[in-house]
Design brief:
The chain contains three helices and five strands. With 134 residues, the protein is an alpha+beta fold. The two termini are 13 Å apart.
Length: 134
């Protein structure tokens, strides 16, 4: 179920005081929270509840490149997309943006689990098709 064309999802973020670290910018771990929140938003927006409730996602790997800092009260946007679904895994990308400026890039390898048994579960073509335009 691999393809090269995907749909983008945009998740807005307002930087709040709790996001700021001792260096007076958004803490690195907060960027990771933004990535996870954007992934969840995309999943729940794209997949009907009757299908999404059957799957739980866990992270196998995160890779993040921190390029520029973000600061208190800034309005950011997380652009996210799924690169592919292969068996029980999904390769997702994110860019954290301040207007057109990329502040961070990430790649996350997610593993799908059956929501009842927590055993790995293959992604159906029906679900995969919800994330790609053809």
């Amino acid at each position: 179920m691999e393809t090269q064309r995907s749909n983008y999802h945009f998740f807005p973020v307002k930087v709040v005081a709790a996001d700021i670290d001792d260096l007076n910018h958004v803490n690195n771990i907060v960027y990771l929270r933004y990535v996870q929140e954007a992934a969840g938003s995309h999943w729940h927006t794209a997949v009907p509840t009757e299908l999404s409730s059957q799957i739980a996602w866990v992270v196998r790997r995160h890779e993040i490149d921190y390029l520029k800092p973000a600061f208190l009260s800034e309005n950011l946007m997380v652009k996210t997309w799924v690169d592919n679904f292969t068996g029980v895994t999904s390769d997702r990308h994110c860019e954290i943006l301040r207007e057109d400026e990329v502040l961070a890039r990430s790649r996350t390898l997610w593993v799908s689990l059956d929501a009842k048994t927590f055993r790995p579960k293959r992604i159906s073509e029906e679900i995969a098709n919800l994330f790609f335009s053809f």
